[in-house]
Structure formats: structure tokens, C-alpha cells
Design goal:
Helices cover about 35% and strands about 20% of the residues. The protein is built from twelve helices and twelve strands.
């Protein structure tokens, strides 16, 4: 457990820092707060109020905050839930379940869900069911039957520079194929490379509006969905919006060059260095000129 360090975030919720990835699992401002703002609200669960069943995929479950927030709401409705999780490390959830601060956040039903997943990898309660697929998400996604389509995909790996293998063009294309017709893929990432991969996979992308406390940020994440079906679903109570000019211009810079992992087994060093080489040969604008232009524009 040595490479995982526990700490309490500003909203009082437990999080971890990975010495291996040299990155925290959540925003310092709050693990629970981040899941609520970047995953629960953009999911707009009210859109499923007339649906019989919702199918969810949590990519990088970690301590389980993203899933926990969403299940907490859904479990109060009559919607049938099918849940799948992808996660390489069993320790974050185990560690969280041993902490009172974590246990206190959740209702008994959600704690039961976490305990079942932790103990047996499976959950079932009434019509609801869930399975975690422990291991590398790039391979374990194939354990999920091919016909299953996800209404919500929660994509929450470490940052692209630390864990490029889960942000590759190929993995994003794989996730896109598993998205239901009206489904949405939600991530905290605002990286141009990731957004450009979503677009190339045929998705329309939106920018998650930062919460009132985060008004200095230009975006809090990305929601991607299939083209053509999106409008009616995002009209009310909008937590995301079309990309601003600044964000669109970001996609025309070298930052938009994707992470490539054609074998689905590449290691992070290889993936990063291949991208750096591609960036160095690119005709696209330097990101520094985009940054300069927008920093200047903001100051005026
Ligand atoms: C930012 S944390 C996720 C936080 C989580 N969503 C939560 O609410 O606590 C990233 C997670 O990705 C997992 N991970 C790293 N590489 C992975 C891989 N190849 N396949 C699946 N999970 C992976 C890590 O073990 C870690 O739990």
C-alpha cells in the first residue's frame, strides 16, 4: 500500500495520492465535490426518468466516487441499473471502505454496493446488477458482452501525460463504439488531444461549465455524444455548453495530436514519445502561440 497515500480533501472527503503516477486521484478541493460537479451533474439523470433501464460503465473506478454519486440518485428511482466497472487496482476501494470518513458519505444501499464489489466483484439487488472487471481496462473491456451499449461512460484515468494508454485514439474509439445511441461519455479532461480524438471518433463534444467557485477555469471537463441526437437532451438545466472560440482554437494546435496505442498494449513511455515525435513533425500551430493569444485576450 506504500505507493498510495491517504489524505483528506477540502470538502472533508477522503482521497489518495499515487506516488507511482505522481498524481492525486481527485482535485484538492474535494473528491466528492469533483465527482458531483464533473460527473453527476453533466450526466443529467433526469433525462432517464422515462427509461426502463440505464447501463453505466465506470472506467477507472478507484475509490468509486463517480459511481457512488450516480447510483445514490438512481437507486431512489424505479430505473433498472446495469453497472460495469474497469479498474486495475483493487486497493483504492478496499482502503476507502476501511475509513469512517468514506463510509459516512454513503447511504446503506451504496455502501452495500461497494462492499459487494469489493468482496466478490459482483452486485445484485432486485433488478439491479453490477460487475467489476479487475485488470487493464484496455483488455478487460472485452469481457463485457459485445452487444452491451452504455448510456453513461465515466472516464476518469490519471492525466494523459501520466496514463496515456487510457486516452489513446484507439481506446477512445473502442469506448465510442460501446456508447448507446443517446449515451454520453463524460470526463474531467479538457485536453485538446482527447477532445480531438472524440471528434474523430464521430462524437459531438461539449464543455462542462465550471462551478461558481471555479470561475477562473475555462472548462471543467468534456461531455461527448453522438451527433444529431444531442440537442433535445441538453436543453434544460444545462451543465455543459458548446465549445468557446478559445477551446475550438485549442483543437487546431499541436496539443490536439492524439496518443496512439495501436496494439492496445503499449506502455506509457512509448506512447508519449511517439506523440512527441509526431508533434515535432507537425504543421499545426504551436500551443504556446494559442496560450499567449488567450492569456493576452483575458488580460484586456
Ligand atoms: C484518477 S484515479 C480514479 C479516481 C476514481 N474515479 C475515484 O472516484 O476514486 C485513476 C484510476 O485509474 C486506475 N488505472 C490506472 N491504469 C489503469 C488501467 N490500465 N486500467 C484500469 N485502471 C487503471 C488507477 O488504479 C486509479 O484507480
Amino acid at each position: 500500500m506504500d505507493d498510495l497515500k491517504k489524505h483528506t480533501t477540502k470538502d472533508g472527503s477522503l482521497s489518495l495520492y499515487s506516488l507511482f503516477y505522481e498524481e492525486g486521484f481527485h482535485d484538492k478541493d474535494g473528491a466528492l465535490r469533483e465527482s458531483t460537479a464533473k460527473y453527476l451533474l453533466p450526466a443529467q439523470l433526469e433525462q432517464f426518468s422515462n427509461t426502463e433501464k440505464i447501463v453505466i460503465l465506470d472506467v477507472c473506478m478507484g475509490l468509486g466516487y463517480n459511481t457512488g454519486c450516480i447510483l445514490e440518485k438512481l437507486i431512489q428511482s424505479n430505473i433498472k441499473i446495469e453497472w460495469h466497472g474497469l479498474e486495475i487496482d483493487q486497493r483504492p476501494l478496499k482502503l476507502a471502505l476501511n475509513e469512517k470518513t468514506f463510509q459516512r458519505i454513503w447511504s446503506p444501499k451504496i455502501l452495500h454496493f461497494f462492499n459487494c464489489i469489493n468482496k466478490s466483484g459482483k452486485w445484485s439487488e432486485g433488478f439491479n446488477e453490477g460487475t467489476i472487471h479487475w485488470g487493464d481496462a484496455r483488455q478487460k473491456i472485452y469481457e463485457i458482452q459485445d452487444y452491451i451499449r452504455f448510456d453513461l461512460i465515466l472516464l476518469d484515468p490519471f492525466s494523459p501525460q501520466k496514463c496515456p494508454e487510457l486516452w489513446s485514439e484507439e481506446f477512445i474509439s473502442l469506448l465510442t463504439k460501446r456508447l448507446s445511441f443517446e449515451g454520453r461519455l463524460i470526463t474531467y479532461s479538457t485536453a485538446a488531444s482527447i477532445r480531438a480524438s472524440f471528434i474523430r471518433a464521430g462524437l459531438k463534444i461539449y464543455s462542462i461549465v465550471p462551478s461558481v467557485d471555479d470561475q477562473n477555469k475555462w472548462s471543467a471537463g468534456t461531455v461527448a455524444m453522438r451527433k444529431g441526437i444531442e440537442r433535445p437532451f441538453i436543453s434544460k438545466n444545462c451543465q455543459f455548453k458548446d465549445l468557446s472560440t478559445r477551446e475550438v482554437e485549442h483543437l487546431a494546435t499541436r496539443s490536439s495530436i492524439p496518443y496512439r496505442d495501436p496494439t492496445g498494449r503499449g506502455n506509457s513511455k512509448e506512447i508519449i514519445s511517439t506523440r512527441e515525435l509526431e508533434q515535432s513533425k507537425s504543421q499545426l500551430k504551436y500551443t504556446s502561440s494559442w496560450r499567449k493569444r488567450w492569456n493576452t485576450a483575458q488580460k484586456q
